[in-house]
Amino acid sequence: MGEKIKLTSDFGVLTLATRGDYLKAIGLALSLRVSNPGVPTAVACHPDLFPLLKPYFNHLVEEVKGLKGFAHKVFLDQYTPFKQTLFLDSDVLVFQELRPHIELWPHQPYTACGVMKREGVSLFGLRREPVLKRLNVSEMVCIDGAGHAYFEKPACKAVFERARHVTEHYAEYGGGAVYADEDAMNIVMTEMAMSPAPYNSFFSRYVSAKPGTLQMDASKGICKFVAADTGKDFSPCMMHFASDEAPLAYGYQLRDLYSKFNAPGSGLWKMVFGDIYKSQVKPKARRFVRDRAPWLFQMIKKK
After folding, report:
1. In what order do the strands lie in the sheet with 215-217?
2. How far apart are the first and last CA of the chain?
3. In sequence order, which ranges of the chain are alpha helices (DSSP H)?
């Protein structure tokens, strides 16, 4: 079966924060206080956010200047203060102790939950067949939408250096696909013959739950539901609210966490309703205009 990860005292959780999502990063930190008390946390962000985040994180790390969006994720090795790091996106909530889940994963410099695929297109438009041909392999790692990654220093340095190279030359790999750090890491993990970790009961999304079955309270470390794909009871360690998924339900979880720890929540609901607009209202409005007034839709696209 191969060697498994064994966590030491130099293990911690790292996330990223921006001006637009730092309230989510605080929510992640608070959920970790409930489910993983004593596990140190770090956040990489612009120094302007340090005063807002300092009460909730053990370590504040200045982000690399000039980087935007996904590109920060191929510099995680330079951001983490820990030897063993679990990176989590800021829009993740954790409900269970991390150690038992991570110690089921293969011991390698970098990993994340995923599967192997022989064909198809990634969530971000990367066609796998040309990449497989370029790498001369029959299957490719797929960690699409992971929202997490585990890595160890110093061995992870070579992985991230390769990821930065792939990022810099992404047009050669992507064939016109939009850049995404997951796809860059899919390429690197495949090149370096590293396996994705098994999902087991670590990962979930809001859509993982059969409608009407989700019981969730991050302020008490509770999350359980009937899985939509298997019909079986499921209790995940974490939930990733990717792409502003279920913003209202997520907002209620953040509200309860903020209330539990008496954290000031100024701007929380403004952020939530902004996410509702971006993920639900705006796409519907665009489709309505596209279908009913194509000429106006083209004018909007040009602007």
Report:
1. 215-217, 222-226, 233-234
2. 55
3. 22-35, 50-53, 76-79, 99-102, 128-135, 156-168, 170-174, 181-191, 247-260, 268-276, 282-292, 294-302
119: three-class secondary structure by DSSP: coil
* Selection from 256, 258, 261, 143 nearest residue 202 by Cα: 143
Place of tokens 């939009």: 178
**Spatial separation of the C-alpha atoms in residues 298 and 290, rounded to whole Å:** 8
Question: Global pTM?
Answer: 0.92
Q: Of 238, 273, 270, nearest to 31 (Cα)? A: 238
Place of tokens 């053990």: 58
Helices (H) and strands (E) counted in the chain, each on its own, are 12, 13
- Residue that the structure tokens 């924060």 belong to: 17
Contact 167, 179 (CB under 8 A): yes
Confidence grade of residue 146 (pLDDT, cut at 50, 70, 90): confident
- Mean pLDDT throughout 220-233? 98
CA distances from 20 to 79, 84, 263 (A): 20, 28, 18
Strands 110-111 and 148-152: antiparallel
